[in-house]
TrEMBL record:
It is found in: Mitochondrion. Its EC number is 6.1.1.2. GO terms for cellular component: mitochondrial matrix. Gene3D superfamilies: HUPs (3.40.50.620), Tyrosyl-Transfer RNA Synthetase (1.10.240.10). This is tryptophan--tRNA ligase. One of its GO terms (molecular function) is tryptophan-tRNA ligase activity. It comes from the Eukaryota. It comes from Exophiala oligosperma. GO terms for biological process: mitochondrial tryptophanyl-tRNA aminoacylation.
Length: 487
């Protein structure tokens, strides 16, 4: 489908290597060059304070990714292009030993259902269905539990809330009050504060402390890289601040064994924001009452063609890219550019297609979207079949793997605070869980788990390598946490 388009024939841009080459953007959060060269540097994204006890490893040697998605049901095309496609790339590449060599790449992908509780108006049976659809959608795009990938529900790992409480004891309310998350959720102005009567009447503690739970999600798995959209950078900065504050707090104690948390880095997706098909000046969203305004990743070929055929454009002939004057057409150009991962500017793509009729252009966009989402619908339907237990098995396996890593982190956190357990049975259980998953901060193979590797076409190796190279350019030396010995 893609290779047969007029656009591909003219420019020869759709070689397979181009399909995955824009995994993450390098700007604006590429680590300082001084840091990459091992020189000291101070600034907003600086590392922990130097300590003689800590030792460093580069992300090129070890990359651990954490990312989560709220259980709002089936993701739409914007969700897929902005985040989920990158998850799949990381998942596939980490299972290809030809690409990794001696490096260690782990990733934790979570359905963060505890975050969704801030929307308290969702009935229990509806939330249960949305959680299941979200997990099935991730599996339908090709994610599953392997030696390198952990796919799990946040609520299945109680350490998330335990660590959240501990981090809450050092989190600044002044910092939290300046964050935009709770203000936007309550439709308040950016300059609103806790002294506002409207904020006092509407704001709940869970929504206000949302960033603390998000920080706990990231730090619990010692993530070195967090793929996010630009609107989440404030939260990653907060997580970094908490990690540094906690490390500094425990290092000041005589019995301290060094840092507990790694300081994570954000990685921005290169995909542009996808707009509504019916209201092209607004972002594509599942909250839009018109289902034809969005493309779900589980839509059938017929549904995709019908939605794009009905997309709002204009009466001006030909194709051009002008967000202000032709938002509908420009949105379709952006969709075409992102589903095919073209490296050309959208203006150049529109120029190449300027003489096409709108009908033919919409057909081209729809065909390429279908190609991008090929097979997702059928796999999703199979997983959602009540008689199919694959989803339940995967969720249980992911929970086990996530708990092992979480237990290890929480043991280090508690020991550093003097909260180590005096209960022999608790210590024995912790030690057994950690022993099964290895002695260091890596994820070892569970003896009861069948590890499945993702097969990758030989022709994609160069493409994935190039994509990972772009991601690794954001890498820097990070502080390896040193756990205290159990007493």
């Amino acid at each position: 489908m893609i290779s047969g388009s007029r656009l591909a024939r003219r420019h020869g841009l759709l070689k397979w290597r181009n399909l995955c080459c824009r995994c993450y953007s390098e700007a604006p959060l590429r680590p300082p060059q001084e840091w990459l060269e091992g020189k000291p540097v101070r600034g907003q994204w600086d590392s922990d304070e130097n300590s003689p006890e800590q030792h460093e490893r580069t992300l090129l040697q070890r990359r651990r990714v954490f990312s989560g998605i709220q259980p709002t049901g089936v993701p739409h095309l914007g969700n897929y292009l902005g985040a989920l496609r990158q998850w799949k790339l990381l998942h596939d590449s980490s299972a290809n030993t030809k690409l990794l060599g001696d490096t260690k790449h782990d990733q934790f992908f979570s359905v963060v259902d505890l975050h969704a509780l801030t929307s308290s108006d969702v009935p229990g049976h509806v939330r249960r269905q949305l959680r299941r659809e979200s997990y099935a959608s991730l599996m339908a795009i090709g994610l599953q539990n392997t030696q390198q990938t952990t796919l799990f529900f946040q609520s299945d790992v109680t350490a998330h809330t335990e660590l959240m409480w501990i981090l809450s004891t050092i989190a600044s309310t002044g910092y939290l009050s300046r964050m935009t998350q709770w203000k936007s959720k309550l439709n308040l102005s950016d300059d609103a504060d806790l002294h506002s009567d409207e904020a006092t009447a509407k704001l709940k503690l869970g929504l206000f402390s949302y960033p603390v739970l998000q920080a706990a999600d990231i730090l619990l798995y010692q993530a070195t890289l967090v793929p996010v959209g630009a609107d989440q950078l404030q939260h990653i900065e907060f997580a970094r601040s908490l990690a540094r504050s906690f490390n500094s707090h425990v290092r000041s104690r005589p019995e301290s064994g060094g840092n507990v948390f790694r300081v994570p880095w954000p990685a921005l997706s290169a995909a542009q924001r996808i707009m509504s098909l019916k209201r092209p000046t607004q972002k594509m969203s599942k909250s839009d009452p018109d289902p034809k305004s969005r493309i779900l990743i589980t839509d059938t070929r017929e549904e995709i063609h019908a939605k794009i055929k009905g997309a709002v454009t204009d009466s001006e002939p030909g194709i051009s890219y002008d967000i202000d004057k032709r938002p509908g057409v420009s949105n379709l150009v952006d969709i075409l550019r992102n589903v095919t991962s073209l490296s050309l500017a959208p203006e150049a793509i529109a120029k190449d297609l300027e003489n096409m009729t709108m009908r033919a252009f919409k057909e081209m966009v729809a065909d390429n979207v279908c190609q991008c989402l090929e097979g997702v619908h059928d796999r999703f339907e199979e997983l959602m079949d009540p008689s199919n237990q694959t989803l339940n098995i995967e969720a249980e396996e992911g929970a086990k793997k996530a708990r092992r890593v979480a237990i290890r982190t929480m043991r280090s956190v508690k020991n550093s605070l003097g909260l180590e357990s005096f209960c022999a049975s608790s210590n024995m259980w912790d030690r057994e869980m950690i022993r099964e998953s290895g002695t260091d901060n890596t994820i070892a193979e569970d003896s009861n788990t069948t590890i499945r590797y993702i097969t990758t076409k030989e022709g994609t190796a160069d493409a994935i390598q190039e994509a990972l190279a772009g991601l690794n350019k954001q890498s820097s030396q990070v502080d390896e946490p040193e756990t205290t010995k159990p007493q």
